[in-house]
Structure formats: C-alpha cells, structure tokens
Amino acid sequence: MPAFLGAAYDDLGVTLGPEGASLRVWSEGATSIDLVIFDAVDLDWITATLPLAPVGEDVWEVRTADLRVGTRYALRVDGPAGAGHMFNPSSLLIDPYARGLVPVRLGEWRSVVVDDAFDWQGVAAPRTPLDRTVVYEAHVTGLTKRHPDIPPALHGTYAGLGHPAMIEHLQRLGITAVELLPIHAFETEPRLLHQGRTNYWGYNSLAFFAPHAPYATAEAIAAGPDAVLRELKEMVRALHAAGIEVILDVVYNHTAELGIGGPRSSFRGIDNRAYYRQHDDGAYIDVTGCGNSLNTATDAAARLVIDSLRYWAREVHIDGFRFDLAVTLGRDGAHAFSPDHPLLRAIVDDPALAGVKLIAEPWDVGIGGWQTGNFGAGWSEWNDRYRNRVRNFWLSDVDYARRAATSPVGIGGFATRLAGSSNTFSEERGPLASVNFVTAHDGFTLRDLVSYDVKHNLGNGEQNRDGADTNRSFNHGAEGATDDPHILATRRKAMRNLLGTLLLSAGVPMITAGDEIGRTQRGNNNAYCHDSPLTWLNWQLAPWQEDLLAHVRRLVRLRHDNPALRPHRYAHAAYEVPNSSVIDWYDEHGETMSIERWTNPAHRTLQYLAQSTPEQGEPNRILLIVHGTEHPIDVTLPEIEDVTGYVSLWSSVPERPDEDEPVLAPGEVIALPGTAMHLFRVT
C-alpha cells in the first residue's frame, strides 16, 4: 500500500462530532498553524484564533466546539524562509479540504463547514456498462442558459441541468453520461479580469472539494454553501433517476495560485515546497502551461487527489471523472511519467472508487507529455489519434484532393480507428480504452470544423495567437458564413459523415454539446474566456438543424441496438474472443480488400462487415460502407455464403434520415455520391 493511503493522512480537513469538530492540516515545513474563525456576516471580523498542535507525520490538529455547520474559517501558517518556501503568517488561507467557500473580496475567500446530509430518495446510480456509454461533454451554463423551456431563474445553473426539459433532450438523444466541464470551485485569472474577460471553462481550480457556487441559483447562493451543495446533489439525483450518469472534468494538475508571484490562497502558503513541482532553487517546474504543477510525487498531494475523488463519488454520487492533463498526475519525483505511478494505480484499485469511470486526457506540455495509449488497465483515454485521423479523412484529405486531384493517403489508417484503434491500445485494454471524439470544448465546434480553414480568435484579446493552428478543418469553398447552397449542402453532409463515424466506431463515443444541432462559435477555436451567446447553445433551431438532430438520434439508437458496433475486446484471427467483433473488409466491388487498396490514395472506399461474438444473446452483424472521395461511385454489396440480405438502417446522404428500412440483396449495386456512409444490418 502506498504511504499516502496510510492512517497518518486520514481525516484531513474538518470532521464534525457530537461535541464540536476537529481540523487536521498537513504541512511538512510549517512551524505554526492557526485556525481563524470569523463572524457569519462580517467576514473580516475574527471571533477566535486557535493554534493547531503537531500530532505526527507532519499533521497538525485542533479540536474545538467553535467549528460547526456554517462556521466561516481560514488558516494562518508560518514557517521558514528560503528557496521554495512562501510562508506568510498574515495570509488567510483556504483549507484544502473545505467543502464550501464564500467570497470576501476579489481573490480572498473563507472556508465554510457544510452539512453533507441529503435525501437521495433511494435513487441509485445507473452504472451504465462502458460499451453502452455515450458521453455528452457539456458546460453547465452553456447548455442551459438559453433553453426556452427552462425557467429563467434556473438558466445557467445546476438546477437548470436537472430540469425535466433538459433531461428530455438528453434522453431523446440517447445520452447515457453527461461529462461536465469543471465544477470544482474556481476563479478567473487576474490577467483575464484586467482584460474584462472571465475564465468560462473553469480550468483554474481554487478548491478540490467545494462546488462552484456561481453555477447555483441566486436563491441557493444567498442561502449559502449548504444550499449550493444540495442543489448540485438534486441535479445528480434527477439525472440518475432518468438513467443518466454524471462525469466530472477534474483539474488536479495545477491550481489557481498560478506561477510564482500569483495568489497565495491555499497550498502556496501551507507548504509551497511540498505541493508544487520545483527546482532546488524554488523555480517552478511547469508541465501544465498554467504556471504551476501539483506535485503528486509527494504523499500529501497524492492523498489529496484520492480524498477528493472519494468525496465526490461517495457524497455527491458522481459516476466518473475525466482527468485534465492526466500525465501530470503520473509524473514521479524526477518529473517523468510512469503508467505505474502509485497515484494512478491507487485510483484504479481504490474500493471507494470501484465502478467509477476513469478517463485520462493523456497528455500535458512537459517533456514526454504525449502518452496516448500508455495508461494502464482500468483507464480509458481521450484518443486524439482518432480525432486527427477522422478529421483528416473527411476534411483535410478532401481539401487536398480538390487541389491536387488525388487524396494524400488511403483508407487503411481510417479503418483502424473505425475498428477500435488496436494500434494504440493493448489487447488487454481493448477498444473501450478509447474515448473517441471529433470535437471537444477545446477547438472548433463541429459546424465550425466544416466552415473555417483557420481560427478566428481576435475576440480573445491575444491577437489571434491563442488556440491551435492545426485544426484539420475544411471550409468547403468559403470561409465562414455563406449563402451558397452547394457549399452549405456539402458542409451538412460532412457533419453527418463525421457524426456517423463517431457513433459507429468501436470505442466510447463523446459528443460535444451543441454539435447535434450544429452550434457555431463563429470560428473561435479557444472560447475559454467567453461567457456569452458565443458559447451558449441556441435552442431556436432552423430546419436543417432539426434534420441534423434527427440523424444523431438515429445513430445513437442504432449503436445501442447493434452490439457489433460496440465490442468489448479486439477479435483474434486464430481463435474466437468473447464480446469482440470479427471484421471482414471488402472493396467497392464486394471483393476482399487487397493489401494494395489499403494504402492506395486512389481507393478510399471500403465495406466494413462486423459480427459480434456475444457471451449472452444472439450474434449481430452490420455492414458499413465508407466512401471517402468527392467522386460518385457504384458499390456492389458483398456476396457471402450465409448472408441473405442487407437491411438499410442509415445513410449520410439524405438531409433527414429515411424512415424506411428497405432490404437489398447480396450482389446488388447501390449508387453513392461523393463522401458518404451507409449502414446495413446483415441478415
């Protein structure tokens, strides 16, 4: 067992008891720690100051009846000067384990003792199997701010997300899990405040146990942190009752204290030397690009992460976590990444987190920071290789072919991604280790991906220097808004091809909120600082958006109904693997794909036949045709000994999905226009 899981680190923060409470704080370098208690109304009025005593293993403790539900408090910590130390006994610091916060003034906070009691009314977590999971990445405010059927008082709030109107949309779409951008308490960086902007995304954590209060209703904020926490739990309960899981995007890699010279709000004043990665001279080792990096090679920082995860899973009933810049968490004392880092393994093995979904963003900006495919068993990962290949195939390759008369590559790499990225993830982990995505909060929306060749980020105040320069996008003939009907139709089909690929690929699909209705950010691919209509979903839909929504609903349903599309494991050529999908590949003539055709840029058409090998239930077979050039083509359905017909389930060609399901015979020829997909069930 890692040392950080030992009893010495138990019960940090406030623990309530029948005769008061205890407060335990860890600091290796402190020479004194005081608990400072404030008046409930005047948060500058100190009503008591109590010293903490060392109790061993660098833990300090105080027991007092002055700590009770509703108490506002802070810490004062003193210690030595010198390289790496930033103690200042005049600083009023946040308890790292505080369950609630209240603001005093800009950049200053008080910790609050909260009441965790809540009636879950017997509502159980959905526990959706990973192969049936469809993730929907969303921002609490952006998703709900403009929804016409949500009461205005609930716009932009936890309560708005839990409202029946929003749940109905998610259920009709077929979503099984909402992945929320950070809801840990966070604050806006001084640089953005100076520019009159805000940190909208929330990747600037202030506290790892307290929910972000501004996402609560005005009524709950006025009532205090207890009410904010209750409103959040009510949202989770409502989603669970509807069969929808809640996954949190968590930012344990850095904090809102930024670089040296930034705020001293918590860790920096408690034990800067222990909590942040740094050189011997105290200079920070920043592998996050955010000014500091939490040093999870130390026991206290590693335990803090584990305790935070346990709290959200146990007390708030959160179903999973997506770890921002997860490579940072897996760096050792020499700052090198290891998939066997004690913290990464402890998260997977912790009984308190059993059944919780764990998703890594498998990179950071440090040396050796790109680690896609290298996390261990128990982890799923955002698959940026999938994103890049799918974008290339449907967008930048097509753009290249218009200018060069031929595509740059064949279809082989795309087919590997479609079938579960076996060249990235080990046989032990299988295709469900891959969280497939085409877009995310960071980057172009789906509509912008097919409408802009370059980013348009001037509104961010950074002279268009921020945001990715390589987007693998294609505007299809005009930059941004256009009234050209041909360009618009081609863009709409490109969106259908991208969504079809995403939802018919092996792995776990993640849809970005608003892509199902063609949301635009007008070419801004880094809208992190805009809390405005630019980033809020507009629910007033044009007819083409209703059509796109119908396609997404159909695709999600087909994924649910056809196990061959969502295998647990990779198939093997020599023996049957349970819960895998055995794949055969055919060309446009219905013949087995030749080696030459996999790599030949002139041949970008394939037929993908997958048959499930279930441990329970009946086998299922699908045939998916993919055509990746702008030239029309005739495709001959393969003649296979035991196949009697092909039931048409979905095509990317029509503006709105067909309701009919005609049956085609083996050997029958179907005509496809340029760049298209067609899915069949095999009988």
From TrEMBL:
Residues 141-559 form the Glycosyl hydrolase family 13 catalytic domain. GO terms for biological process: glycogen catabolic process. Residues 458-483 are annotated as: Disordered. InterPro entries: GH (IPR017853), GH13_cat_dom (IPR006047), GlgX_Isoamylase_N_E_set (IPR044505), Glyco_hydro_13_N (IPR004193), Glyco_hydro_b (IPR013780), Glycogen_debranch_GlgX (IPR011837), Ig-like_fold (IPR013783), Ig_E-set (IPR014756). It comes from the Bacteria. One of its GO terms (molecular function) is amylo-alpha-1,6-glucosidase activity. Keywords: Glycosidase, Hydrolase. CDD domains: AmyAc_Glg_debranch (cd11326), E_set_GDE_Isoamylase_N (cd02856). SMART domains: Aamy. Belongs to the glycosyl hydrolase 13 family. PANTHER family: GLYCOGEN DEBRANCHING ENZYME. This is Glycogen debranching enzyme GlgX. It comes from Microbacterium aurum.
